[in-house]
Batch of 2 targets.
Target 1
Amino acid sequence: MKTIALLFFLACSLSTFAQGDYQLNQAIDFFRTNKMVNGEIKNMISEKDIEGSPYLNPEFIKGDVYTSSKVKFVEIPLRYNIYNDEMQFQSPDGKVAAIAAPEIIEKVTFGDYTMEYIPFISAKKIRRGFFKLVVKGNATLYARPNIEYRQPVPPGAYKEPEPARFLEKTDSYYIRIGMDAAQKIESKSDLENVFPDHAKEVANFIKKNKVNQRKEDKLKALVEYYNSLQ
């Protein structure tokens, strides 16, 4: 599938903003065509003849887009491409486009999902990406969806060929303190280190409640406990 990248523009006057939420036919005026995304192989992969899905939600779900300038666009058909880490929308004429300036997004809500575009630490560098919101507070818990792309396997002497495929992996979990970059939680020591101001209380809570860094409900309980200490 060919994906067109659109630049998400804000051109909202105070008088218009005061009228409240926007409908889709009003919001569409704030999109402007931009050049197609290129240069990265992940954006060159066609979904044709690939088994599995790269999407969090294969079908478009109508949702709302909140921007950092406090503008809300409503009833926009949205879906999230995990593999490309891009939020896509469908225009009234049926074209599929990706928001090319996600840094202006405060949050996106659609279906049961609330997603935020935030900074996070990866390979000792600060990057930005979309995360599912789990718990919001001074400490915020996020889940990062993961998809693996496997190349097709040619036939062998005693082996049938295998098509290319997308394989859904388990979510990764990140914790963000205040406005700092989110940190990936991969071990119990990561959990203790991310809360240095209440290290003793957090360590006791982890031990008492048998908190597992791979269990969302346990991480949620821990983050909510930490926030109650503030």
Target 2
Amino acid sequence: MLARELLGTAQVPGGEELRLYSHGRDFMILLDRNELMSTRMRGSEEALAVMSLERLANARAPHLLIGGYGMGFTLRAALKNAPPKTQVTVVELVPEIIEWAKGPMAELTGDAFEDPRFTLRMGDVADAIAERPGRYDAILLDVDNGPDGLVRADNDRIYSNAGLAAARRALTPEGVLAIWSAAPDPRFTKQLERARFAVDAVEVSARYDAQGRGKGPKHTIWFCRPS
């Protein structure tokens, strides 16, 4: 039986320590005993991009803001499915996450960082959201564990009433705010509606088998349009 190998650690600013492990050809990032992400479960992270782009079918040159690089599943799905003139800006808070993408997980990352449509910005995605009204056609948030966060207390401000209002201002009139979560949260759905979004909460399988059938736990993605 293969043992997990610790490849690196990272201190989240204002939060907890993350640990990157390998297990054979798989990778996983853990917070304490919680598995935050894994190469074995990528379905919902890819759906975050694919299903957002489906809702932007009329946008010929959309600008996507992705909050949290993770293992890059959302970024790579966006680059694979987006129109040629798309801009994709990824904001990542933890430098080691990008170092791991270029180092131990370089094969997984592929050539995504060389794609001319891609821009990497280090820092807090809340700052990028607050900068300029009407800038983004889609804001895709895969930050922490969703609204019920584990990693960093400051992430709560993204999902607060003020944070949702800022996201609404940052979107184009037909834009989409998409929020990933490890679990459903009816209270957060109501909070989104109070923030003047039309909300579609979708359950997505965490992984798929060789025939494309959903397997494993279900994750939740809220797709929200200004109403």
